[in-house]
Write the structure tokens for this entry.
Amino acid sequence: MPELELRVAGSASSSKISIGPFEAGKAFSGSAPAAIIADSLVLRVFGTLLPPGPRIEVPRGESAKCLESLEAVWESFLELGLDRSSMVLAVGGGSTSDLAGLASSTWMRGLPFEYAPTTLLAMVDASVGGKTGIDFRGRKNLVGTFSQPRRVHCDVAFLDSLDELQFASGMAEAIKHAVLAGGTYAALVEDLGGIRPRASTAAGRAALEALVFGSIQIKAGIVSRDERESGERRLLNLGHSIGHALEAILGIPHGHAVAAGLASEARLGVILGHVDSATLKRLLDLLSAWKLPASMAAAFALAGKPDEGQGRVLAAEALAADKKRAGSELLIAFPAGADAGFGACVEHRIALDELATHMKSLP
């Protein structure tokens, strides 16, 4: 079973991350969870696979990430009598882990918690790195903590339950990691050619485990050097500035918004002279293979909303809540590696009003 440990530099904080078959009796560090947090679909589909313990049901998707849900989880912790010796297990997608991690890291100033992600997006991104959070006033992840889960257990068999839209959403984050790392991981992602592996076959399980493990290695390596996003970790936000803005106003899946953000920010990089046309084409080909939106216009079409001037204005206004904003400027990363643009990035400060102007004319 592939396993790695994410140990944060200068900190006692660490996560053990393993990939392999989920075994309820063995997966969680020898102690049964005091509470299991999951949404109704996860409990219905995977409930019999989970270890014993009280269930705390939360809303599905992004709607879980709100103050009302956080308060409801805290209320359940109070009713169950959870204390600092109690372990919380979150099972599901990234919204569930974001909420459960925030609730656990703030209850009595910190309970141990673990994740069993069931979506590709959660396995390659949300469950790794120690970011927890909820949305506030329609803005993504404005309230949260940095707190590492004790363990993350990734069983790619869970991924066979995903529909094509959900799987593709996770692939957007894998593509982001391919752009950041280049080399063998980029080749692995490109070699899939938009064809989804299935864990029900030995070859499919091996392909999925390689995909997930490679992404985790890339992200864990960056996080271990910069847990609190003061430098290198900002590169993991590649595509997320415009992506989060589109997600906020359109309500499309996170990965699809990131895909449109990746394409849009790369096009902006071409305009500003940081990205060459070969890099842009390589990225667009990858997004196209997974039928991901490769422009702002495609994101509006996916949401079933007209791509009109007011929508672009709202997206630009949403950038003001970006966590990488410094005063009237925003830090954006552009692919700039030697391997056809993959494998390295360059950061660029751009004024918010200049970015807003570009967003009106980008495809």
User: Anything to note?
Assistant: The longest strand covers residues 341-351. Residues 80 and 278 are 57 Å apart (CA to CA).
